[in-house]
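Title: Request for sanity check on Two-component system response regulator BaeR prediction

Description:
We are preparing a figure and want to confirm that the structure record we downloaded matches what your pipeline produces today. Could someone re-run it with the sequence below and paste the raw structure tokens into this thread? We only need the token string, no images.
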Amino acid sequence: MTNALKVLIVEDEPKIVQILETYMEREGYQVSVLNDGIDAVEVIKETEPEFVILDLMLPNKDGFTICKEVRQFSTVPIIMLTARVDEIDRLMGLEFGADDYVCKPFSPREILARMRTIMRRLEASVQKEEELAYKGLKLNVDRFQCQVDSKDVDLTPVEFRLLQTLVSRPGVVHSRELLMKVCYVDERVVSTRTIDSHVKNLRSKLAKVLDGKELLHSIYGVGYKLE
């Protein structure tokens, strides 16, 4: 990714937009703004931003719905902004495909730091020049692509890292704690339920191309394995 990163901010609070826009433009990013959720999905589809900052509570269409619809056609990194700090809202945001979340009020520097962390992960995946395979499942780490029986499966960065870890050692049980470290390399403290939410979402995506066959198995009280 270049310094002139194309960022779309979908937020209806003018002060937040102004602050984020100011800091991001100082970084050299190309920033565009939407103050309403109704056209967000179409704008993302048409303009193909490289990063999306998405508010949870928006006029006409909420951030959860937008994120879920965007994940039908794009793996663009999404950070969700929310004033609702209870855990279930954060889990729902991640389950619908958000890569990260930030609770209001926040520092714009925190947003930039989270963005850089996500971008570094994507760049590292590209640089590894690695391909993993297990039965009909193939992961191209270089292209950040997942295929099952030659069918493309769109995954978020967190889902991809999770599946990559499991595919790298089939049959081995990976603890939730280990998977949390893999998914969140910035060592943020997250609940083990967050990993459960990602696995649930990953299972759902794989099931659509596996005709109901189960590859991901939960080991009660321990974690998950691929088999």
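Thanks, this matches our download. The mean pLDDT is 84.
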